[in-house]
């Protein structure tokens, strides 16, 4: 079985790599098609092929243009042209095309229209609300694209129910639970670059976007700092929103020394080092379906604090401290016991580690995914 796996912008490289390697281990002939690799990518294809099929020209201009408006426009123009007129040969030579992400819905429609009826099409819906309503043009028309696929894969009942509520045929939706992931292990240099905490350290890591609730986290931390509680907050990752007002609010309140930042596209090793240094990890998301960041952190055995959005609301009791989504005072109350007690942090960390060890494996997911492929191909035959 020959599969073309698409993640044009490589939004979830670690997920793609884990799944493709597992599928190859089950006998599938896999090619992952994405953009050219960057220094921050840690994909080392094992048993499958990687093809930089998208964004080759705009990525070559990235250093010169930076990552501002000019670069985004160049990417959009290149992708639109590729979807409308570009070569489909790596996709048409496969038995089935599995799309992980649709990065620009108006352009994606053009590519899918060219493929529809010619190839079996499967799509993993990572978020029922495309890009969590932060997308603008990027996600406009995404819902209509879902009707063009032979099968949709989701990672939990929350996403499945949301899609059914949007009018998707339940028979086309398949649930495959998201296994834990492991980022590239931090090197000695990565660890040396991250100063050890001087007081309990709370870590928020990954891309920084409005739906992830960093503003709520800042509000919660400010209330705790003002009440005399001693801890520090580390923000590590690339901002896709204006974080200056948040940084200014902390400085104006007199707690600039409690906030540490490591902004930018970080390597997996550096993110792994941040997790190793932290005492607690926080996921204050306003809404989410499933969180790869959470699942990539479980093996560290650190205390977790989450909202109750999406998959977080389905976690077994005690795996993470939980607060209602969008509620900064409640988030502060959930954080407080962990900030004050090493023993409580250790208890939560042990439960998070055990939960990760009990979850399914990538082999399980690959077997289930191949079953979906076979069903789709048999239906078309």
What is the β-strand count?
13
Radius of gyration from the alpha-carbon trace, in angstroms: 21 Å
As residue ranges, the low-confidence spans are none
| Helix content estimate | 40-55%
Strand order of the largest sheet: 3-2-1-4-5-6-7
Spell out the helices and strands N to C: EHEEHHHHEHEHEHEHEHEHEHEHEEHHH
Number of helices: 16
Shape: globular
Termini Cα gap: 14 Å
Mean pLDDT: 94
Structural class: alpha/beta
The percentage of residues in β strands lies in 15-25%
> What profile does the largest beta sheet have?
7 strands, parallel
Please provide a written account of the structure.
By secondary structure, the chain is an alpha/beta fold. It contains 16 helices and 13 strands. The strands form two sheets. The protein has a seven-stranded parallel β-sheet with strand order 3-2-1-4-5-6-7, with helices on both faces. Strands 10-9-8-11-12-13 form a six-stranded parallel β-sheet, with helices on both faces. Helix 1 (13-25) packs across helix 16. The longest helix has 19 residues, at 362-380. 43% of the residues are buried.
